[in-house]
């Protein structure tokens, strides 16, 4: 499993990035909260990563903080919530706001 990636930010979009790690471009899905914390294209970047494997493929989901990654993993553990829905939830609420809403 991939725990984190450290490389150069090759491309960035609000919901995804491409991270160049020693010549290999990793496509990573991200929440908007992580997008807001990204450096400029061409700069060094470290992301916490959840490597999600399914029958029909694999996706990498990246996060600026360990707390975001942990909350994402809690969300996808709920029946009916997949990676894209969990990323959408984290795009709309911070980890603290989500915890407060659940409580």
Question: How would you describe this protein?
Answer:
The chain is of the alpha+beta class and 103 residues long. It has one domain: OB fold (Dihydrolipoamide Acetyltransferase, E2P). The chain has four helices and five strands, in the order E-E-E-H-E-E-H-H-H. The protein has a five-stranded antiparallel sheet. A hairpin with a 2-residue loop joins strand 1 and strand 2 (16-21). Helix 2 (66-76) crosses helix 3 (83-92). The longest helix is centred in the C-terminal third of the chain and has 11 residues, at 66-76. The protein starts with a strand and ends with a helix. The relative contact order is 0.18. The mean pLDDT is 94.
- Would you identify the CATH H-level superfamily? Nucleic acid-binding proteins
The tally of strands reads: 5
Q: Write down the CATH class.
A: Mainly Beta
Domain module tally: 1
- What CATH architecture do you see? Beta Barrel
Mean of the pLDDT scores? 94
Helix content: 25-40%
Uncertain residue segments: none
Number of helices: 4
Largest sheet: 5 strands, antiparallel
Q: Shape from CA axes?
A: globular
Spell out the key features of this protein.
103 residues; alpha+beta; OB fold (Dihydrolipoamide Acetyltransferase, E2P); five-stranded antiparallel β-sheet; 5 strands; globular
